[in-house]
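Intended use. Records such as the Bacteriophage protein entry shown here are meant for training and evaluating sequence-to-structure methods. They are not intended to support clinical decisions.
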Amino acid sequence: MSAINCLGCGSEVGQDGQCPRPEHCGNCPPWDCDECGQQCSISTTCGCWIFFEGMNLADIKAVLAAADLSVNVEVPPCSIDSSQH
């Protein structure tokens, strides 16, 4: 497996197949938001970011649909417990 590096600062963030390649990570210095120009970082988020923590999937899909966006959710085969079937 090869390492996955952050596009913003080049820090190693995982191994190939473990996570997507992020634009920014916790090691990145602050950057200007592409949407509003405000300076932000992983620890100091931009005011135009939308957070979905604590929301159920149906509500998240409704928010995205209102913005003419969508989400495709798939359960990886390795996360399905075959003893439950």
